[in-house]
Amino acid sequence: MTRALMIQGTGSDVGKSLMVAGLARAFVRRGLRVRPFKPQNMSNNAAVTADGGEIGRAQALQARAAGVPPSVHMNPVLLKPQSEVGSQVVVQGRMVGTAKARDYQGWKPRLLASVLESFGRLREEADLVLVEGAGSASEVNLRAGDIANMGFARATGTPVVLLGDIDRGGVIASLVGTRAVLDEADAAMVRGFIVNRFRGDPSLFADGMRIIAERTGWESLGLVPHFPEAARLPAEDVLGLRGSEAGEGARTVAVPVLPRIANFDDLDPLRAEPGLRVVLVRPGEAIPGDADLVLLPGSKTTIDDLSNLREQGWDIDIRAHLRRGGRVLGLCGGYQMLGRTISDPHGIEGEARSSVPGLGLLDVETAMTPLKRLEAVTGRSVADEVPFAGYEMHIGETVGPDAARPLLRFADGRTDGAVSADGRVMGTYVHGLFADDRQRAAWLARLGAASGGTAYEAGIEATLDALARHIEAHVDCGRLLALAQ
Q1: How many angstroms separate the CA atoms of 49 and 57, rounded?
Q2: In whole angstroms, how large is the CA radius of gyration of the chain?
Q3: pLDDT in tens, 322-380
Q4: Catalytic residue among 73, 321, 332, 474
Q5: Taking the model in full, what pTM does it have?
Q6: Cα gap 230→184, rounded to integer Å
Q7: Is 267 strand, coil or helix?
Q8: In this model, does residue 247 exceed pLDDT 80?
Q9: DSSP 3-state assignment of 234?
């Protein structure tokens, strides 16, 4: 009979996603068929699935750890924030509408049916389903109608292990406090706890583990040391974009960090290259004058983020960068910003707008359309015939004279992107270009930098293996399997 176990957390960014990924790889190595599952996720960093939808990036990584293609059923409800109070709602891989935070509470009873359907499908094909909770298990103010944490656990009878992060401090209070605020029926779903990201001598926290167990009545299942190699894995939350600089190479890539930045794992392979210095330009900072490439990343709300870019004065910085002979590359939403105009007549990204001026660095125009393209693609870059593999995830159609000089040609003969007449401004809808070692080496060569020979995808696999070994060394995985039901 298929078993399931849920990893919930004392808060956001305590390591739930990586814990599930590491456990998935560990149990697959023991011969089990494992499937990851997250009932509800909130992220603008999404992945295209094999069945033609989209899910949170973390579930795609977990699927990879489990050795299976990602499926829309691994994350049946995905919220993609468009403002401080509202999100696009994606159900089983397809957008069904937008909702403000208060209104979304009324959606939850209807969404539970989709969550349970997807969970049931995964149980039919697995020996073990590893479920990841969302945010904090202690958000009892949102408990009514919950589908992401204890509401799901209770509805399905899935045992829970609670994960706390000692690195942020106060882990005893976090775990004991969670026990204090949960009602008795919810607390009874918790079978044990794990303390994550410990640094130093573990014997010094032995009393801490004992105190937590005594105060909560929950079983101590492991004290997991900090795993620095986790930085090599794609982060789902924008919190993963910590640090302003990566690398010490002679060539600099500058990336303006926009409020609704999306699919920012496009940057990870570049940040891992020793030949590059990647600078994340935060609000209030100027784009560095020594940048060789300004990279405009994807955006969930292109027009609003374009307005923010102008408010920061980055449009002026980019023009100065081009006058100095630099290059600019726009990815997806960043590509749309580079054109002459952007229109959103249907209000797909928020307020309906007939036409908004773009940066005017590419002679193209973009119109937002209801159809969303979600597709894995392969092909070659037009200028140098270098192969690539990536994916499309966008709304909008971009046309114009510069699109007659496409950046990429797909294997089916279609073309994508645009290049300016002088060849120094480029845009494309394809994500994942830099994860392809061949394309990344070609881009580094264009900037006059040598690739470090990094095999990016192989590195992800090796890191997942190392994560599994790390968790197995510090967590009682046999006991976790016994607790699953």
Answers
A1: 10
A2: 23
A3: 999 999 999 999 999 999 999 999 888 878 888 999 999 999 999 998 888 999 999 99
A4: 332
A5: 0.92
A6: 35
A7: helix
A8: no
A9: coil
User: Taking the alpha carbons of 338, 341, 347, 351 in that order, is the dihedral positive or negative?
Assistant: positive
Is-contact 267 243, C-beta < 8 A? Answer: no
Cβ pair 158, 5 in contact under 8 A: yes
Q: Which tokens is 258 given?
A: 């926009």
Smallest CA-to-CA distance from 380 within 428, 450, 425 is with: 428
Ordered DSSP codes for 72-128: GGGSSEEEEESSSSEEEEEETTEEEEEEEHHHHHHHHHHHHHHHHHHHHHHHHT-SE
Active site residue 431: yes
Taking the C-alpha atoms of residue 133 and residue 186, their distance in angstroms, rounded to an integer, is 14
Contact present, 38 and 58 (Cβ < 8 Å): yes
Determine whether 226 is an active site residue: no
Choose the catalytic residue: 73, 394, 431, 470.
431
Nearest in space to 401 (alpha carbons), one of 357, 355, 370, 360: 360
The whole-angstrom distance between residue 307's C-alpha and the CA centroid of its chain comes to 24
pLDDT of residue 212: 98
Q: How confident is the model at residue 258 (pLDDT cuts 50, 70, 90)?
A: very high
Say how far apart CA 359 and CA 402 lie, in whole Å.
14
Across 172-230, the runs of DSSP E, i.e. the strands, are 190-198, 219-225
The sign of the CA dihedral 139, 71, 159, 208 is negative
Reported in sequence order, the residue ranges of 257-347 that DSSP labels E, i.e. its strands, are: 261-262, 276-281, 293-296, 298-299, 327-331, 341-344
Query: Which 3 state secondary structure label does DSSP give 67?
Result: coil
Name which residue leads in pLDDT, 50 or 172: 172
Please count the other Cβ atoms lying within 10 Å of the Cβ belonging to residue 280. Answer: 21
112: nearest Cα among 144, 81, 71: 144
- Integer Cα distance of 55 and 44 in angstroms: 10
